[in-house]
Design a protein that fits this description.
Layout: H1 2-17, E1 27-33, H2 40-43, H3 47-54, E2 57-63, H4 70-79, H5 83-86, E3 93-95, E4 100-102, H6 119-126, E5 130-134, E6 150-152, H7 160-172, E7 178-185, H8 189-195, H9 200-223, E8 230-235, E9 241-242, E10 248-250, E11 260-264, E12 268-273, H10 277-285, E13 291-295, E14 314-318, E15 323-325, E16 334-335, E17 349-352, E18 360-366, H11 370-378, H12 404-433
Length: 453
């Protein structure tokens, strides 16, 4: 009996510890391939990525945040916040009070980033750990006076190989250890804009290059002995949709440019009126049937895109595939930024490592759910966020998760068992309560005498 108790206790300890790799500080690498539309996985072949998925997990669609642009969604992934909460509301922004401008080429001012705390900052401040980054948006900015311990200043000219070499070096040789790292690559976004996602020939070439880079990543991690103990998440910020010169909304045909300042153009135009806001709104409202025009206070609640001073008084949202232009604007054959309910705007998520199941597929999560999951993997206390950890539990080996069909099956099974037990008890009670057949009283020989004489 004593031996049995010891054996059971040892088993419980092992189960609580989970994978043996958790005896070491957990490590996580977050990789983004910009503009990787979810259904590319169904429409093209990715042998390296599919091998990665077979040994890990796949989320087929990740619902991103509105607006579906690069800077806002990359910051939502690492903060778990909607854009109105973390403050990076577009790729181009203007702050009325400070009169500061933010753009792809002017993004280094911490003022824009300090409304939230990204996970690489939390990772360094909560524990004696280091973070590292290769080009992820915001990682080269001192957010709350903190940058990753190791990072690269953004430059699109730096090759993927160089970025990967730096990240793997920092993951392998750093003290204190790098436990969280990010890696960013501009493709297939750049080619999606240039050719459009429906250009099969060019996108086939570009996506094959992406798959080869994933193969290089896995090979490098295996060569350095990082593969078995490192958790790797591969995802993206948004998808891409096809545009056309036949689907243009020319704002100059609707309103004189002197009446407003254009903060951001397409497919979500941010308008700062110079004259009466209502007049500007009315002119734009009748501009085209292929867009929605919102006063800031009337932006649909489902966008979570209202409660921030950086969101302009008027927001124009083009229909999918339609493009806002001015008279001198150039056209992109592919674009993103549209309504985040559109499947074409959704990326995917694949993950591999000791924290994740093997060979598991999940239909959808929100990209703000990635942050609490990453905090759980790293053992960090998350900052307040808009994500839901329960949405990602089924991806993780240390979480108890029952999917809806299984839950329904268990409930039905329990009800059937309870019903059978109830019927059995009723039958047994009925048997016990049935009266015995009447039998005549047998008298003894000496009992013949009458009781009363």
């Amino acid at each position: 009996m004593k031996s049995l108790v010891i054996l059971l206790f040892s088993g419980l300890i092992t189960a609580c510890r989970g994978n043996s790799s958790y005896s070491l500080p957990p490590k996580l690498l977050l990789v983004s391939f910009d503009g990787f539309r979810a259904d590319y996985l169904q429409n093209y072949e990715f042998p390296h990525l599919q091998n990665f998925i077979k040994e890990g997990v796949l989320v087929e669609h990740v619902k991103n945040v509105f607006i579906t642009k690069t800077f806002p969604n990359h910051y939502s992934i690492v903060t778990g916040l909607y854009e109105e909460s973390h403050g990076i509301v577009a790729n181009s922004m203007y702050d009325v009070i400070t009169q500061k401008h933010f753009s792809d080429f002017n993004d280094k001012d911490p003022f824009w980033w300090n409304e939230a705390v990204p996970i690489w900052v939390t990772n360094q401040l909560q524990e004696n750990r280091s973070s590292a980054a290769a080009m992820w948006p915001g990682t080269d900015v001192p957010i709350h006076n903190t940058t990753p311990s190791y990072f690269m200043n953004y430059s699109s000219s730096v090759s993927f190989e160089e970025r990967l070499n730096n990240i793997t070096m920092w993951l392998s040789n750093s003290n204190p250890p790098v436990t969280f790292a990010t890696l960013y690559w501009e493709e297939p976004d750049a080619s999606g804009h240039k050719y459009g996602p429906e250009d099969k020939e060019n996108m086939l070439r570009v996506l094959k290059e992406i798959d080869d880079l994933i193969g290089d990543l896995v090979y490098k991690l295996k060569m350095l002995g990082l593969w078995e103990n490192l958790n790797v998440i591969i995802t993206s910020d948004h998808g891409m949709t096809q545009c056309s010169k036949d689907r243009l909304i020319n704002l100059d045909l609707c309103i004189d440019h002197s009446e407003y300042t254009l903060i951001d153009l397409t497919p979500v135009a941010a308008i700062l009126p110079k004259t009466n806001k209502t007049e500007v709104y009315n002119k734009l409202k009748n501009c085209s049937s292929h867009m929605n025009v919102y006063l800031k206070e009337d932006i649909p609640a489902r966008f979570h895109y209202q409660h921030n001073d950086r969101i302009q008084p008027l927001i124009l949202v083009a229909d999918e595939g339609w493009t806002f232009v001015l008279n001198k604007s150039s056209l992109k054959l592919g674009d993103h930024g549209y309504d985040n309910s559109l499947p074409s705007m959704h990326p995917f998520l694949a993950a591999h490592g000791p924290a994740f199941h093997k060979g598991y597929k999940h239909s959808t999560i929100n990209n703000v759910d990635i942050y609490p999951m990453m905090c759980h993997i790293l053992g960090l206390k998350p900052h307040p966020n808009n994500g839901t950890f329960g949405h990602t539990k089924c991806l993780l080996v240390d979480q108890w998760c029952i999917k809806l069909p299984e839950a329904i099956g268990i409930v039905i099974g329990v009800l059937l068992v309870l019903t059978a037990l109830t019927l059995l008890m009723i039958i047994m009670q009925n048997k016990l309560s049935v009266p015995q057949p009447f039998s005549r009283l047998q008298l003894q020989e000496d009992d013949d005498d009458p009781l009363i004489e």
